[in-house]
Amino acid sequence: MGEISKAIVNAGHSLGWSMQPTAPGKISGRLALRAHVAEIDVEHDTRSYSIKYRDSSNLEAKGGLIHSEYNRWIGNLDKAIRSYIQNAGG
């Protein structure tokens, strides 16, 4: 699980996310841009990972909807994580 965890943390950091392992198989992420804040959890094992919304501020999260920038940030993070995993040989 070390390589996946390292790839997630490094990918997040490369995009400005603060990434902190909180438990085995779980990393907490926070991105603050201007007045907007997104908080996520990335759960993973040795073969897969899942990015889950935790909280946000100033992203108009309501009724299952959220500002489109959040989706772009998560898409960029997912792409970066996949790239880091691929480059690590995973």
Report on the architecture of this protein:
A hairpin with a 2-residue loop joins strand 1 and strand 2 (26-33). It is globular, with a radius of gyration of 13 Å. The protein has helices spanning 2-14, 68-87; strands at residues 18-23, 26-33, 36-44, 49-57. It has a single domain (2-87), classed as Kinase associated domain 1, KA1 (TATA-Binding Protein, 2-Layer Sandwich), CATH 3.30.310.80. 37% of the residues lie in helices and 36% in strands. The chain contains 2 helices and 4 strands. With 90 residues, it is α+β, with helices and mostly antiparallel strands. Helix 1 packs across helix 2 (68-87). The chain starts with a helix and ends with a helix.
The averaged pLDDT comes out at: 94
What is the CATH H-level superfamily?
Answer: Kinase associated domain 1, KA1
In total, the number of strands is: 4
As a percent range, the share of helical residues equals 25-40%
Q: How many structurally independent domains?
A: 1
Q: If classified by CATH, what would the architecture be?
A: 2-Layer Sandwich
Structural class: alpha+beta
Number of helices: 2
For the termini, the CA-CA separation is 10 Å
Largest sheet: 4 strands, antiparallel
Q: Segments where pLDDT lies below 50 for 5+ residues?
A: none
- Just give the CATH class: Alpha Beta
